[in-house]
């Protein structure tokens, strides 16, 4: 792991720089730290940071950029006619990488020498067999173009790695030398170090932006790829979701959106009344003791991982519902309305339980923000507590509660595990809550975890679905946060 | 007191003659009040009941996974089968495949039945089917390790087949196996006799906690251990990246950021990132880390990176809250004695805010530990995480699963014996989460300052 | 002090509306009101004065059991309304508060229209049989609250949109609409400017015709202007209670004198 040792060396160098810089500063001041502009450790830090940060930065960028550059160069070596029907350049490239890794393994195990690896060709060697000996299984015979691309890939990676080490080392040493030479008793080391640290802090803060940009860009590009392969009209306005791996798929989001919204509505029908009444009881009626144990207990429901709810839906709630609504004569109702454990109701009920604490704690906060004078005003007129709550507190808190419900709705729409395990896989428009239905998130998972070719519309549609989901939840969130903030300002 | 004519037939009030008598209207209103109150109590109760059902269900269905049915069996390691040449050459012994060990099991059963006087119509081979499919491999590994034992009779503790285990735990009954090809009623009769003879017993199964996943065919051997290691490495990545980056970002935003539109954009961004569905982070991980940067699929490193991005907003929000709770007078005091702003923050504010930051970080980690959806997309599901990694690099880079992904994987498998594993896995996961949250609560209680 | 109470009692026995005897109030461990005896007469404005934290507001809130809403608050002693103990377990505070209305320090209109603010009390107590009656009550109350002319054209506008003085008169009108027998006012003018204060004071004087009014104020001038009876509270004790004129011109207790002349408070 050469990169690992490079990083270790960088840190060692910068540690050495710290002591060198510190010592030099003290020397410049004749051993009297009071003569210095800054504390001695700042001179050390200055040298250490100047040596470490630029080198480390270049290292990281290099590590990100090198594979891309190599990839694009090497993939240019593969002629178009080599790409078989129904696959893509991407798949051929993964063959190339596999062969290149195989060659590395062969060297590591001593099955081939370095020279041999660089010179073999498909004419005189059965590369597949040789690699098979060292445990690298290849799906098909290695073509000469693939082999030479793989050799090129290896060579470029190696050269790249060597150059990277050199550049990084030079940068680190140069930084160290520069900062060391600048160290002087009048050098404003603290200011320089603090500027550097401020820059690092800013960098850390902008990672949030980078993440968002990453999310949007990664999905946007693939979505555009998708729309170049598939009609956007069908995606947004079609009526059928029927991926077909031989092509000609109908990929419309509408049936998925219907399933998503249906399940979310069922979930909210469970969560909103329970959550809201729980919040009202906790904030208006409950004694301190009840509140201090009931509130955290309810909030446990929000801390349980969704996989637990998913399992609960699949293995407990689903079968229980089937027992009630299904099984014909053997069922509790003697009806045959439900055949499988997965259904809108299964997923909706369980998701509703998960959302109870969301609604209740947000509403609790919001109800508590209604000024006490408002309640006093109503109670002073001889209203009962419930009249006060229903006619004064709730109307006053309404905007905030709507915001809380919207936030819960956004959670419901984006929830994955519960629907993956509890909702089913059938995309359709149906009003029957006992039928299995599928959702946007479920389809994203199944389209991206299937064995299909990455460049097919059937896979790429997941990115379009993801982008839609992102926009949908983001919109809901921004709107909800706006409402809640407006509401808070009103009573501040 | 009023000059309006009164319909309530009271001389001086519309609100009833005497305070000590409730008017019918007040009674009605009080009834409505009681109903309303009851709705509230019912809501709390139903929430708590759900919690109880969930917990009871998890423990009821999952505790079984920590016990497993084992069978003790004396097996004669026949030299004729295992080492025909008789020179104990390890290479020769290795050439005998697990298939070659099967007859030994049949013999052992024959001996056992004869010795204990058990009556059964089953052939010895059928009897051997009571054991896990891994039994032969278990013997082979033992023999390869101890070649000198060949020719002797050794007592093995074998896992039984998952159906036998299910029978012992009450999951499998004679009625439920009517259409089950892998076990028959006669075999269950044999099990009953073996239990009576003390050969078959339920024991604590540490392998479930420490062992690795097993194939579809051997639910009895599947364990959480390796996926736990996968989760551990992911959490290390999250801790190593999210904590420093999160704290640095919070310090910048809370202490240094100028009030301008860039800062506003960053802040809005962070609060919205916190609400982005986790699956979207999975898509990001798939397309950026795997397709674009060619990091290995299913690697805990990638999982850790995705979870880092997901956890960052949580950590930033809680860190900012704890920085904000340090009163400005502390900063003023430091600045007043001539410290730079940076020194004031790093020497005074940050140490005071540290308990809060730590609490937030632990809670963020707990959230990340239970997250499943993004892991599905970066391929941490769908294969058998068989061996624990042998180095840190391998731990980060080689394919592994994670606890929640492993649970999902088991839930997807067809054999109901895996469901018990899934619930058991959830118990382990919850133990981790409860521990982390308890630590966070204790930290908060212990170090919480009131200014 | 006992003398004064007795004097008050002797003069107006038949008109006594509320009578408090040996009232103690505790907030947790704090003894906030100590052994207070007061009689509130009908068609009279009674002012409670005293320095901040002397317990005058706390005592006021005992008179319609608003203190019930505070968990840690405990009231002992006897308070009667028309001879009936208002802390009797059979008494429903809801019914009591309909008879003893309250106006608060800070104007607190509900986030509803002006009309709905006024109609709130009549609606919950079922005072109107139909819309026409309710309209009538709303108009009458707004008129008696001396705010009708200012709001008659915008009854559908939110009550929170009014100015502070208007809001407080709206709250008074809201309290009147419930047709109480006693009106408690907790520093009703402290959040208002002088002009609005003058309007509210004028209103209080008019209200005396039909109600007995109890007003807590920290302004001695206000007490002198609007009240007929004045009670001076200090550190949870009722120091002196009597005719307003007498309290201000010839106080008996040295503490009252100190307060009135501005030496304490």
Major sheet summary line of chain C: 6 strands, mixed
Instruction: Report the mean per-residue pLDDT of chain B as an integer.
Output: 85
CATH superfamily of the largest domain in chain B: MetI-like
Indicate the CATH class of chain C.
Alpha Beta
Q: Segments of chain B where pLDDT lies below 50 for 5+ residues?
A: 1-12
CA-atom Rg of chain B in angstroms: 32 Å
Number of domains of chain B: 2
CATH topology of the largest domain in chain B: MetI-like fold
Helical segment count of chain C: 11
Counted by DSSP, the helix tally of chain B is 19
Low-confidence stretches of chain C: 1-13
* Count of spatially separate domains of chain C: 1
Which two chains form the greatest contact, residue counts included? A-B, 94 and 86 residues
Helicity range of chain B: 55-70%
Brief digest:
Chain B has 451 residues and is mainly α.
Write up what this structure looks like.
- The complex is a heterotrimer of chains A (492), B (451) and C (265).
- Chain A has helices spanning 2-28, 40-77, 89-108, 114-119, 127-133, 144-182, 189-229, 232-237, 254-285, 288-303, 306-325, 344-369, 372-380, 385-414, 417-422, 440-449, 457-490; strands at residues 241-242, 250-251.
- With 492 residues, chain A is mainly α.
- Chain A folds into 2 domains: 2-187, no CATH class; 241-490, MetI-like (MetI-like fold, Orthogonal Bundle), CATH 1.10.3720.
- Chain A starts with a helix and ends with a helix.
- Chain B is mostly helical and 451 residues long.
- Chain B has 2 domains: 67-206, no CATH class; 225-447, MetI-like fold.
- Helix content of chain B is 63%, strand content 5%.
- Chain B is built from 19 helices and 3 strands.
- In chain B, strands 2-1-3 form a 3-stranded antiparallel β-sheet.
- Chain B is flat, with a radius of gyration of 32 Å.
- With 265 residues, chain C is of the alpha/beta class.
- Chain C has helices at residues 2-12, 56-62, 93-99, 114-125, 131-144, 148-151, 164-177, 194-207, 220-226, 244-249, 254-260, and strands at 16-27, 30-41, 45-49, 73-81, 84-85, 100-103, 182-186, 212-216, 229-234, 237-243.
- In chain C, strands 6-7-8-3-9-10 form a 6-stranded mixed β-sheet, sandwiched between helices.
- In chain C, a hairpin with a 2-residue loop joins strand 1 and strand 2 (30-41).
- In chain C, helix 4 (114-125) crosses helix 5.
- Chain C is globular, with a radius of gyration of 18 Å.
- Chains in contact: A-B, A-C, B-C.
- The interface between A and B is large, with 94 and 86 residues.
């Amino acid at each position: 792991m050469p990169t690992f040792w490079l990083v270790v060396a960088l840190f060692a160098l910068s540690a050495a720089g710290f002591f060198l810089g510190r010592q030099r500063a003290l020397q410049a001041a004749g051993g009297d730290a009071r003569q210095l502009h800054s504390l001695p450790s700042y001179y050390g830090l200055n040298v250490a940071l100047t040596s470490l940060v630029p080198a480390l930065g270049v290292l990281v960028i290099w590590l990100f950029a090198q594979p891309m550059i190599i990839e694009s160069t090497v993939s240019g070596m593969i002629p178009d006619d080599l790409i078989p029907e129904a696959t893509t350049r991407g798949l051929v490239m993964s063959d190339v990488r596999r062969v290149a890794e195989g060659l590395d393994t062969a060297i590591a195990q001593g099955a081939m020498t370095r020279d041999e690896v660089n010179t073999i060709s498909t004419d005189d060697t059965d590369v597949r067999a040789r690699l098979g000996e060292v445990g690298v299984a290849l799906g098909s015979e290695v073509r000469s173009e693939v082999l030479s691309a793989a050799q090129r890939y290896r060579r470029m990676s190696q050269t790249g790695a060597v150059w990277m080490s050199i550049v990084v080392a030079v940068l680190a040493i140069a930084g160290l030398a520069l900062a060391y030479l600048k160290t002087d008793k009048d050098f404003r080391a603290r200011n320089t170090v603090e500027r550097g640290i401020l820059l690092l802090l800013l960098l850390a803060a902008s990672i949030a932006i980078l993440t968002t940009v990453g999310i949007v860009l990664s999905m946007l590009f693939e979505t555009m790829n998708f729309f170049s392969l598939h009609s956007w009209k069908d995606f947004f306005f079609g009526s059928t979701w029927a991926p077909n791996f031989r092509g000609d798929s109908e990929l419309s989001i509408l049936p998925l959106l219907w399933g998503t919204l249906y399940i979310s509505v069922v979930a909210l029908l469970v969560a909103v009344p329970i959550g809201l009444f729980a919040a009202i009881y906790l904030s208006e009626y409950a004694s301190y003791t009840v509140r201090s144990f009931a509130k955290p207990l309810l909030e446990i429901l929000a801390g349980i991982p969704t996989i637990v709810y998913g399992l609960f839906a699949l293995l407990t709630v689903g079968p229980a519902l089937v027992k009630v609504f299904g099984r014909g004569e053997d069922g509790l109702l003697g009806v045959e309305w439900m055949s499988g454990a997965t259904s809108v109701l299964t997923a909706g009920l369980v998701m509703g339980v998960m959302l109870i604490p969301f609604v209740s704690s947000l509403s609790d906060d919001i109800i508590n923000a209604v000024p006490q004078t408002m309640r006093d005003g109503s109670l002073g007129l001889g209203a009962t507590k419930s009249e006060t709550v229903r006619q004064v507190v709730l109307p006053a808190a309404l905007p905030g509660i709507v915001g809380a419900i919207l936030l819960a709705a956004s959670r419901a729409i984006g929830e994955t595990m519960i629907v993956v395990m509890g909702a089913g896989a059938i995309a359709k428009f149906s009003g029957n809550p006992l039928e299995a239905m599928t959702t946007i998130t479920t389809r994203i998972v199944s389209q991206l975890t299937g064995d299909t070719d990455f460049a097919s519309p059937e896979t790429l549609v997941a990115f379009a679905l993801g982008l839609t989901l992102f926009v949908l939840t983001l919109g809901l969130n921004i709107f909800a946060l706006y409402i809640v903030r407006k509401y808070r300002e009103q009573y501040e | 007191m009023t000059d309006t004519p009164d319909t309530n037939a009271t001389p001086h009030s519309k609100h009833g003659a005497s305070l000590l008598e409730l008017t019918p209207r007040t009674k009605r209103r009080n009834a409505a009040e009681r109903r309303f109150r009851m709705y509230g109590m019912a809501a709390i109760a139903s929430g708590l009941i759900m919690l109880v059902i969930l917990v009871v269900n998890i423990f009821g269905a999952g505790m079984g996974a920590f016990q497993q049915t084992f069978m003790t069996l004396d097996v004669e390691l026949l030299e004729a089968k295992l080492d025909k040449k008789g020179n104990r050459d390890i290479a020769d012994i290795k050439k005998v495949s697990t298939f070659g060990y099967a007859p030994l099991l049949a013999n052992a059963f024959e001996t056992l039945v004869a010795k204990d006087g058990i009556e059964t119509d089953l052939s010895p081979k059928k009897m051997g089917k009571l054991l896990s499919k891994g039994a032969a491999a278990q013997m082979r590994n033992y023999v390869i390790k101890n070649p000198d034992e060949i020719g002797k009779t050794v007592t093995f503790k074998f896992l039984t087949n998952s159906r036998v285990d299910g029978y012992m735990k009450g999951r499998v009954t004679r009625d439920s196996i009517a259409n089950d090809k892998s076990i028959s009623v006669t075999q269950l009769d044999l099990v009953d006799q073996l239990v009576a003879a003390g050969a078959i017993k339920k024991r604590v199964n540490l392998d479930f906690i420490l062992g690795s996943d097993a194939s579809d065919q051997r639910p009895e051997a599947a364990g959480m251990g390796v996926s736990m290691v996968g989760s551990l490495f992911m959490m290390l990545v999250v801790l190593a990246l999210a904590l420093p980056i999160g704290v640095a970002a919070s310090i910048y935003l809370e202490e240094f950021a100028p009030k301008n539109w860039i800062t506003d954009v960053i802040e809005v961004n962070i609060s919205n990132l916190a609400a982005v569905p986790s699956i979207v982070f999975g898509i990001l991980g798939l397309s950026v880390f795997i397709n674009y940067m060619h990091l290995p699929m299913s690697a805990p490193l990638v999982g850790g990176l995705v979870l880092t991005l997901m956890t960052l907003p949580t950590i930033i929000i809680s860190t900012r809250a704890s920085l904000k709770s340090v009163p400005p007078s502390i900063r003023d005091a430091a600045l007043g004695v001539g410290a730079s702003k940076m020194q004031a923050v790093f020497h005074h504010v940050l140490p005071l805010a540290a308990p809060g930051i730590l609490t937030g970080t632990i809670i963020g980690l707990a959230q990340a530990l239970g997250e499943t959806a993004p892991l599905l997309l970066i391929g941490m599901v769908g294969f058998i995480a068989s061996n624990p990694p042998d180095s840190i690099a391998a731990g980060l880079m080689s394919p592994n699963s994670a606890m929640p992904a492993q649970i999902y994987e088991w839930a997807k498998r067809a054999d109901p014996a895996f469901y018990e594993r899934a619930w058991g896995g959830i118990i382990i996961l919850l133990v981790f989460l409860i521990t982390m949250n308890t630590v966070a609560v204790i930290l908060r209680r212990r170090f919480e300052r009131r200014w | 002090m006992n003398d004064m109470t007795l004097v008050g009692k002797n003069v107006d026995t038949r008109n006594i509306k509320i009578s408090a005897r040996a009232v103690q109030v505790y907030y947790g461990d704090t003894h906030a009101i100590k052994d207070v005896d007061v009689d509130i007469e009908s068609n009279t404005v009674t002012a409670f004065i005293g320095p901040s934290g002397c317990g005058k507001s706390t005592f006021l809130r005992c008179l319609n059991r608003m203190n019930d809403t505070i968990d840690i608050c405990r009231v002992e002693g006897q308070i009667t309304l028309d001879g009936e103990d208002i802390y009797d377990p059979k008494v429903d505070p809801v019914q009591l508060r309909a008879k003893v209305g309250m106006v608060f320090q800070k104007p607190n209109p509900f986030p509803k229209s002006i009309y709905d603010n006024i109609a709130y009390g009549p609606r919950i107590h079922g005072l109107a049989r139909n819309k026409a009656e309710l309209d009538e009550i709303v108009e009458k109350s707004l008129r008696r609250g001396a705010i009708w002319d200012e709001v008659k054209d915008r009854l559908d506008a939110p009550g929170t949109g009014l100015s502070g003085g208007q809001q407080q008169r709206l709250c008074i009108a809201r309290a009147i609409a419930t047709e109480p027998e006693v009106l408690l006012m907790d520093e009703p003018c402290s959040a208002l400017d002088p002009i609005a204060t003058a309007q509210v004071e004028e209103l209080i004087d008019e209200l005396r015709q039909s109600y007995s009014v109890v007003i807590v104020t920290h302004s001695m001038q206000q007490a002198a202007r609007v009240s007929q009876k004045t009670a001076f509270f200090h550190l949870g004790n009722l120091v002196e209670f009597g005719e307003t004129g007498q309290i201000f011109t010839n106080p008996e207790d040295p503490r009252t004198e100190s307060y009135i002349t501005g030496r304490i408070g």
